[in-house]
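#help-structures

NK: newbie question. if I give both the sequence and a SMILES, will the prediction place the ligand too? trying with 2-acetamido-2-deoxy-beta-D-glucopyranose
OV: yes, paste both and it writes out the complex. here, I ran yours:
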Amino acid sequence: MELASAHGHRGQIPWRGLLLTASLLTSWSAPTTAQVTIEAVPPNVTENKNVLLLVHNLPQTLRVFYWYKGTTTDGKNEIARFITSINMSKMGPAFSGRETIYSNGSLFFQRVTKKDEGAYTLFMLDQKFDRTVMSVRFSVHPSLLTSWSPPTTAQVTVEAVPPNVTENKNVLLLVHNLPQALRVFYWYKGTTTDGKNEIARFITSSNKILLGPEHSGREIIYSNGSLFFQRVTKKDEGAYTLFMLDQKFDRTVMPVRFSVHPEKHH
Ligand SMILES: *[C@@H]1O[C@H](CO)[C@@H](O)[C@H](O)[C@H]1NC(C)=O
Ligand SMILES: *[C@@H]1O[C@H](CO)[C@@H](O)[C@H](O)[C@H]1NC(C)=O
Ligand SMILES: *[C@@H]1O[C@H](CO)[C@@H](O)[C@H](O)[C@H]1NC(C)=O
Ligand SMILES: *[C@@H]1O[C@H](CO)[C@@H](O)[C@H](O)[C@H]1NC(C)=O
Ligand SMILES: *[C@@H]1O[C@H](CO)[C@@H](O)[C@H](O)[C@H]1NC(C)=O
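OV: that's the protein plus ligand as structure tokens.
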């Protein structure tokens, strides 16, 4: 016990501590030290709120630790790792953009969705490359405000409001349930997502809007995904395509269309 505290104060190891270090090394990773435990705070989190996977008594002598989604430690399920020797984190393929890994072992999740519910696994490697694996889980329940909508797969949908608009009036291409963790989304005129058909894009990470060659000066792109058209003409009638890229660069394409009819003249 005395040695554990001597070890904790680097550079201040008393001579007595040095003498005892040799015998200590052999029993170093013996499970006599305080047991690692993980808890989800809170264990049952409201959708769109945050949760912390809190690690107690993370061993001091780790080389690296990894967080995985699920209970298997396959490479494709890796959210992030923390390399202790260089004090650096690295994101894995299962990183959604909403997780933060801390040097103390904990993993912080922002704006959880129902899909985040389930098990997570912490995998630790010590100086002798001995492995320790621990899992934790949390539930996600819908918030009261949104409990009227299906709580599970909130599918992204697009509708034109109105679908049949009078010439010179406005139309909104309204996006419901835009995924939270997008890198970027684009709006295109027509059904092909060629660069020359781009109206505008929204870069989520930097909150930046870039206009494309098809931007007529009458369209406004919103951070919630929607595209607002002002003073439509007959030539605006037809199909439009929303193209989304998530953190893993997975693509989702959603078409929508509206008609334009002439103003009534009396
Ligand atoms: C989580 O909390 C909600 C709201 O209090 C409750 O309806 C649900 O049963 C809880 N789920 C679990 C797994 O505890
Ligand atoms: C680890 O760090 C996070 C972020 O600073 C903090 O919220 C959490 O309480 C820390 N965990 C422990 C066990 O100290
Ligand atoms: C690791 O990096 C964090 C954040 O930059 C810093 O607070 C901490 O002191 C560093 N630890 C070591 C051992 O270098
Ligand atoms: C749009 O509305 C106009 C006027 O009500 C109607 O004449 C026309 O048929 C409608 N077009 C479509 C495609 O629904
Ligand atoms: C997106 O923002 C626009 C402009 O503020 C608004 O009209 C529209 O209702 C919003 N869409 C959703 C789904 O909230």
